[in-house]
Amino acid sequence: MRILPPLSKVGVSGRGLVVTLPYLWLLLFFVVPFVIVLKISFSDVDLAIPPYTPLLEWVGKNSLAIKLDFNNYAFLFTDPLYVHAFLNSVKVAFVSTVLCLLIGYPIAYGIARATPTTRNILLLLVVLPFWTSLLLRVYAWIGLLKANGVINNVLLALGVIHEPLNMLYTPFAMYVGIVYSYLPFLILPLYANLEKMDWQLLEAAEDLGCRPWQAFYKITLPLSRNGVLAGSMLVFIPAVGEFVIPALLGGPNALMIGRVLWDEFFSNRAWPVASAVAIVLLLLLVPFMMWYQSVQARESASAR
Amino acid sequence: MANSGEAAKAVPWRDPNARAYVEIDRVTKSFGDFKAVDDVSLKIYKGEIFCLLGASGCGKTTLLRMLGGFEMPTSGRILIDGEDMTGVPPYERPVNMMFQSYALFPHMNVEQNVAFGLKQDGVPRGEIAERVATMLDLVKLGGFAKRRPHQLSGGQRQRVALARSLVKRPKVLLLDEPLGALDKKLREHTQFELIGLQDKLGVTFLVVTHDQEEAMTLATRIGVMDHGEIVQAGTPSEIYEFPSSKFVADFVGSVNIFEGKLLEDEPEYVRIGSEELGATIYVSHGISAAPEAVVWAAIRPEKIFMSTAPPASTGHGNDNIVRGAVQDIAYLGDLSIYLVKLPTGKVVRVTQPNTSRHAEAITWEQQVYLSWDTSSPVVVTR
Amino acid sequence: MNYRRSFFITTCLGVGFAFLYIPILSMVVFSFNASKLVTVWDAANSPTLKWYYSLLHNEEILDAAWISLKVAVINASGAVILGTLAGFGLARFEQFRGRFTLNAMTTAPLVMPEVITGLSMLLLFVAMEQLIGWPAGRGITTMTIGHMTFSMAYVTVVVQSRMSTFDIALEEAAMDLGARPVKVFFLITLPIIFPAILSGWLLAFTLSWDDLVISSFTSGPGASTLPMVVFSKVRLGVSPEINVLATLTIAVVTVMIIAVAVWMARAGKAAQASAE
Fold it and tell me: Which residues does chain B have with pLDDT short of 50?
């Protein structure tokens, strides 16, 4: 019968091993890449493979020169294209988030208030599109919105319009696409939050003289704050860097930073500029990601 | 109640030469600045049912978990059957625990649950099957071997948990609030079953509970805990009849406590003058206290006589008699609780068994006399 | 529990679900349309299965599907191992060095735009190739690594959430009965949280199967996945074969979800019924 060192807890040696593997993996394949992106953002385009100049260079026998080229960043901030792209992305993401909230909150609320059997069916119905490829669902909207697409054909047949509406390759199409794709990401965390609510609080409020809408505004809404924030972040943050939807639905004038990054990288082979774009985008989003983390931490703390 | 069939058994805690089976030696557990268990020392003897009794947060569960190996003491030692087990993990201790939630493995049936511990010990399969079957019969779950936990009632689940812990023949069985989840009738029935089981198997039980009735029924000895310390340890009757402090007197059962000053302090008796009471208390045993000290006399409700006519003398003039008016009555079937308000404002709790259906029952507002025996009050100095 | 069937809420639910499903249904309907223009219904020749036939003989798409399948299966299996370890560790061990970092690393991929993750991973592979010669060129390996990195974050969330409702007394009871921590994990914890792990696997599989952006960045010549092929096709406009693909995908997903729902309902009912 052994006696363990007094201050060790049960199984402490095993603990380290359990988390080491995922920790190292993520460190190598998730964190280190960002360092590399940072490094390349400071280099210059080069006609070489890989297409960028090295950061460290041997100058003479014993000195190492670090060449930090800030041109890429200067370029980003002076060229109106990039500034517009960043601002537009934030605007689009923000508006989409608001729209998702307006459409998604009643849905999440309706599901949370339903009877258990209905609730499960409704949840399955919300989750089903989520499991179907995003690409294909966005593609569906091409078919619906284009000049000889379903919506135009129906409206023309009904006589509501006399000429096909120009819907595809417009900002409108992009909003529709983003809201459509990200709606489940808002509904699910919001539903998770609403489901835990004590509905008797509303009954108590009404018993004390509150009208239903007031009760919602004063009780349900504040209590669902964490769910609203979590869902909003899950829509806003990825939407800022969204690429597929602007590419397929937005048309050439839809200036989104995700698309800009892609074009710089694949079309222009301008790796350093693309890296700089990525870094700036990351810096822009990090505060929101930290906010999301703190909301999650608060939610799990209150659940305990 | 326990040990009733074994009057011949020695009383090991009175024997200075008896060796403790479980010894808790100056154990402290701190979480940061907070001391959950504060310098506790305790000796538990083989074959006992020892109950740790206390309110939530008093440290009893922490102490239990340290015995089980799920927490490590910040300082102090724990010895089981003479061996130092302080740093030993749960899977290497000859101790088993019955959890409050029973913790039955939902993906295994009853048989597999009970056999689990034996499998971990590498017991041969034939022997496992035999011991499991015997144990299930013992807890009266013979035909339930293939059932799953979710198919059992609360009482049946508890018996599986019990069987699972006992089949390993541990030196000590730890029970965490064993009867808390059962309804009243089932609880009473299970209490006696537990005692019978313990008697038969001879395992030492350590029970943690906040329910003093449970403790009084099950225990050979009770340790009352408050704020991480054991404030008194003794047999149920010792704890009840001779509490060592106001806290213990009040915690176990109901009690009337009267504050007063020592008027006379002799070896065979003391007299206490209590303003609260508005009378003098005569107690027929000596106490040790400083002269003119403030003391408290604790008198149990069932030991107070209530009558409409003045009682026959208690032998000491006007000591141990007061008058009051009945303020409230609670009828509980087998007994009634009366709250009697004294002229001083103090309310005294009196219980009387309803031994006959009187025509002249005592009612509200009635003037009554309260009196008690000289041996009834217990004097506590803290 | 008294709930109020508000007309407003019911309407919202109706409109909301219509919004979600009309595009899906339209794709399914038009997959049977004979016209190459997809959305112009050719009443004379429809409904037809000719596009189904054409899709199932399209070499490019079949090859891409096969690659997607391989990547998705390997990715899901790897992600489940990494994610379960991380989820278990984060849920059970309250304090350990690097906890904050691990937590941050497993939640960041959930929200980060894929263009950033994809770009950064590609640059890592290029740098690694320069430094140590591996990975030699991009292809299935690099793509799988890329997928696993973001999939495991999702699996971690699922497992961590399941562990938070897992009664720790079960693990303590097992230890009390003589099982060492590793055995406890495999004999007790794992079997009980298995449904969560399975759903994590399915989630990781789906994320990989559908992924476009990270695949595009981390893949190489000759390793085109199904979404990459679909994307190049739909950039040019609608295509009836894509409608067919969509219909098949939806059919498979629907069947699986209904199967899971029925299985869960039956398991739940059995547990309830025999508990009486």
Answer: 1, 3-8
pLDDT digit string, tens, across residues C144-194: 999 999 999 999 999 998 998 898 999 999 999 999 999 999 999 999 999
Q: Do C24 and A129 touch (CB under 8 A)?
A: yes
User: In CATH terms, is domain B12-94+170-246 a member of 3.40.50.300?
Assistant: yes
A232 vs A289: CA distance, rounded Å: 11
Mutate to test the interface with A, among C21, C35, C38, C120 (most CBs of A within 10 A): C120
Kindly report the CATH number assigned to the domain that includes residue C85: 1.10.3720.10
The distance of A17 to chain B (nearest Cα, Å) reads: 19
Integer Cα distance of C100 and C95 in angstroms: 9
**What is the per-residue pLDDT across A1-54, written as a single tens digit (0 to 9) for each?**
333 333 334 444 566 778 899 999 999 999 999 999 998 888 877 766 677 777
Q: Is the pTM of this model over 0.90?
A: no
Rg (CA), chain C: 23
Neighbouring chains to A with at least 3 Cβ pairs closer than 8 Å = B, C
Number of domains observed in the structure of chain C: 1
Contact state of B91 with C179 under an 8 Å Cβ cutoff = yes
3-state secondary structure of B347: strand
Residue C136: C-alpha distances to residues A49, B142, C128, C212 (Å)? 14, 65, 9, 22
CB contacts, 8 Å: A8 with chain B: 72
**What does the buried/exposed string (b/e) look like for B137-172 if buried means 16 or more CB atoms within 10 Å of the residue's CB?**
ebbebeebbebbbebbeeebbbbbbbbbbbbbebbb
Nearest CA distance, B111 vs chain A (angstrom): 28
By the CB < 8 Å criterion, does A4 face chain B? yes
Q: How confident is the model at residue C79 (pLDDT cuts 50, 70, 90)?
A: very high
- Pair A136, C242: CB distance under 8 Å: yes
ipTM for the assembly: 0.85
Q: Write out residues 169-208 of C within 8 Å (CB-CB) of B.
A: 169-170, 172-180, 183, 188, 191-192
* Domain range for A269: 76-303
